[in-house]
Structure formats: C-alpha cells, structure tokens
Amino acid sequence: MLILGIDTSCDDTSAALLDVEGPAVNVVSNVISSQFEIHKKYGGIVPELASRRHLEMIWPVVREALGGTGIEGLSAIAVCKGPGLIGSLLVGASFGKSVCFSKGIPLVGVNHLEGHILSAFLEGAGPGFPFLSLIVSGGHTSLYMVEGFRKKFRELGRSRDDAAGEAYDKVAKLLGLGYPGGPKIDALSREGDPKSIRFPRAYLPGTYDFSFSGLKTAVVNFLRDHPGPADERNRDVAASFQAAVIDVLVRKCEWAIRETGVRRLSVSGGVASNSALKERMRGMAEKRGVELFIPSPVFCTDNAAMIAFAGYHHLLASETEGPDLNPRAYLPL
Amino acid sequence: MEAGRRLGQLLKPGDTVYLFGELGSGKTVFVKGIASALGIPEREITSASFTIVAEHLGQSGISLYHADLYRLENLEQAEAIGIEEYIGSDGIAVIEWADRLPPGYAEGIRVEIRRARVAGREGREIIIEGLDEKDWHNS
User: Would the pLDDT of A260 be above 70?
Assistant: First the structure.
C-alpha cells in the first residue's frame, strides 16, 4: 500500500512515499527541502517567507518523492494538520485536499506530534508497546506513554514555557552564535567546561513537566553580570547551559522509566540529533537496561515519512478527512 | 502571574494587551495569569515563539489570542501573519514583544515588565498603562 506524506508545518517542505505491507515499512523516498539559507540571516524562521517558499517547493518536492509512481497508484495522501505555523500548514493541507479531491483519493490528517512519536518505526520493527516517547524540538518538549499506533498517546508531561530547542535558539542568539542554535551550541560546548557555571535545573518534582524559561533567564543574568572577553566565557556558558538542559531531559526520562516500569524509550524531534544528548541517553539506557530508540537525524527532524506512517494507521481505521479539513497552529495531541 | 490574573479579570472581548519586556522578564508567566482569569488552564499557555500565534478558548466562550513577535523583525512581517486580525477582534489579544511593532501601533493596554531587585531579591516591576485606575483597584 503506497501512502504519500506531506509535512509543511514549519520551515521545511517535505514529501515522502511510504510502502507499507503489514508490519513491513519501506520508506521509498523522503524528500526534505530545507529553507535554512532563507531564514539564516534573520536569526529565526520568518513565517511569511516560509509560506511563500512552501508554495514554490511543494510541487517539485512531491514530484521528486513520487519518482515514477503516478498519483493514481496511491492509497491515500497524509498531510500534517498541525501544530505549526498556520501559513505553512495551509500550503501542505490545501495541496493535499485539492489533489485528493480531483483524483478521488482518501485524504488523512495527521498531528505533527503523532508523527514524531511514530518516527521510531521508520527504520525497523520499532519499540513494542507500551513505550515512553520524548519529543524534543524547537516547538515541543513533551513526554508520552504510547500504547498503540493511534489515539493511544497519553501525555505524561510537557514544557510549561519554552521548548528545549527554543531555549537553544534563544541562548545561541544571546551568545551571538546565529541560527539554528542547537548544532552551534553543541559544537561550542565541546570546547567548554560543563561544570564551570551552575545553571539551574528545573526538575519540577512530582510532575513530568519541563521548564526551560528559568534557565534562559539565568543565562541572561550571567551574561549581564560577567561582561568582558567573550570567547572563553561563551564556551563555558554553552557547555554549562547544554549540561543543564540534558540533565533535566535525561533525569525525567529516568524517573518515568522507574515509576512506570516501562523499559522502552524513544527520543525524537530535532534536538534528538544533539550528540551530547544521545550520548547521555545511551549511557542512562545502558545503566537501567532500557531499550532505546533514536531515529537517524533525517527522521528526527521534521519529515514527511513519519506523517505518511501515522497516516497509514488512520487510513486502516477509516479516519479520513474531507475538503473541510482545517489545519490549526495550536493542536494538542 | 497574580498581576496577570487581576488584569485578566478586567478584560473584555475586543481588548488588546501589548506586552513589553526583555528575554526572561516573565511575559509568558503574565499571560498565564490572564489566561487563568478566563478559565484557561495555566499549563495550556506556553511560549508562542514557535507558532507566533496560539488561540485558546476560555470558559465563557471568549477566545484568547496569544501572540509572540520575538522572531519577527518588522511590521510587514507582523502584517503578513495577520496580526491585525486579532487586534480588536471578538476575542482578547495578548501580544508579547510588542516593541517589534512600530511606534503608535500599540494603542490600548500596555504592560511593561522589568526585572528588578526588590529588597535584595530578584523581583519584577510591572507597569500597566491604558486601564482606568479605579477598575484596577475595585477588582
């Protein structure tokens, strides 16, 4: 069964062709057109530029994803319906709606977070149920208990303020490192001492919620109180900031594993490609005897293959959408 | 948070609150306060920097439009995301990083939050303009 997935939730235009037969999942193509160069000079994503670029790229990206496959050969098209930037979401959703309507193909709407959770199944059998799923990206930091392929996602906690990736971007901007902040801080951290500055860690005991806003404020305060030669200071700030973020992410997963007794964990979303986070998660998983799933970077970041896979499960359950599908910027799972 | 809740109780549909204050001053926490006055769970309000605008439905059917212009550079970009659709709409709009709007644009209720040391402790100074003072004291 061939499913075309489309994701235009933020700044990347992505389309993927998925071939699913029973438990066998084959990602035939997963095309991602990055808008990185366009947004880099603005230090962040500019929504209007993103929508316009999606409009330009949607056909070429879909065509490349389809390869030789005709649209008539598809069993369904799955589009991301939110959360994300509303102008960007509209491009992908409208495209999917019109193609499905004109060709008489079922349309499926997928929550972006559902996609990230299920990205653990794109490169092999994936975890058994139930498993814990941590999503860490520029827009989200949430921990779920996952008991099935659809509708069985129980949110254990989420960020009360900034997402982890957002804190990375904001701190990178404070340090004059540019955008996107994650890889830049990750790289600079290797030269700094993670123990040199004791930044706060918001563990929020008794909950699985996260908070990175106070950490961001602590970095602002530190930079204000320590003016002067920036090079060495910034290396230590980057390393100490990153250590604080990772400590919290790893520790909270550890708590959830201990308290729920579930020994399978997946970590996905753009920040899951962070080298230090992966290393620490692996160490923790080994120590606790936990099966850990971290998708390859191409499936960690926003991608359409995960949308297609989640869409496949909606299709199996006959959950399809009509031309009135309306994407939403804020859409809790 | 408490100051936000008090302000939230005084807001009517069509009102717009413009929030000013640097990174880490507590703007999102203030919005949580406004939301709680409208019956929106505090934890539903998170940073809106990513999606720019988030819409929440309050208990009495009033929408709260929570906008965050942190990533925008200028008014053209704010117009491009349709910010004026939320100002003076049927709901209540709260706009963080209102200094991204040009002078004269932010007419209405203005809230400035500054970090300040109060009695040796880290605190916040909150200045609210554009409200009738007696409403505030009677609330």
Answer: yes
A201 and A227 share a domain?
A: yes
**Is the CB of A162 inside 8 Å of chain B's CB atoms?**
yes
Q: Do A329 and B43 touch (CB under 8 A)?
A: no
Min distance B56 CA to chain A CA atoms (Å): 8
In the block, tokens 């977070």 appear at A113
C-alpha–C-alpha distance, residues A57 and A37, integer Å: 14
Q: Which residue ranges form the domains of chain B, and what is each CATH number?
A: 2-137 (3.40.50.300)
Q: Do A83 and B51 touch (CB under 8 A)?
A: yes
Q: How close does chain B come to A172, measured CA to CA in Å? A: 13
Choose among A193, A210, A192: nearest CA to A201: A210
In a domain, A322, yes or no: no
**A325 class by beta-carbon count within 10 Å (0-12 exposed, 13-18 middle, 19+ buried):** middle
> Do A221 and A98 lie in a common domain?
no
For residue A327, being part of any structural domain is answered with no
Question: What mean pLDDT comes out for the span B83-96?
Answer: 85
**pLDDT exceeds cutoff 90 at A9:** yes
Q: State whether A158 and A75 are in the same domain.
A: no
HSE, side-chain direction, 13 A CA sphere, residue B136: 12
User: Do A45 and A90 belong together in one domain?
Assistant: yes
Map tokens 């008489």 to a residue.
A104
| pLDDT tens-place string over residues A73-131 | 999 999 999 999 888 999 999 999 999 999 999 999 999 999 999 999 999 999 999 99
User: Do residues A159 and A84 share a domain?
Assistant: no
Whether residues B22 and A209 touch (CB distance < 8 A) is answered with no
B81: distance to nearest CA of chain A, Å?
7
Chain B CB within 8 Å of residue A69 CB = no
Same domain, residue pair A105 and A249:
no
> Could you give the number of structural domains in chain A?
2
Q: Is the pLDDT of residue A44 over 70?
A: no
We report the CATH number of the domain holding residue A303 as: 3.30.420.40
User: ipTM beyond 0.85?
Assistant: no
Tell me, yes or no, whether A237 and A254 share the same domain: yes
Spatial CA neighbour of B83 closest among A44, A47, A83 = A47
Residue A224, chain B, CB below 8 Å: the answer is no
Contact with chain B for residue A216, Cβ under 8 A: yes
Q: Is A293 strand, coil or helix?
A: strand
Contact A233, A175 (CB under 8 A): no
Please check whether residue A328 lies inside any domain of the structure.
Answer: no
Does residue A330 sit within a domain?
A: no
CB-CB under 8 Å, B55 with A330 = yes
Angle, CA B96 vertex, CA B91 and CA A11 arms, to 5°: 95
Task: Provide the residue range defining the domain that includes A111.
Answer: 2-117+299-316
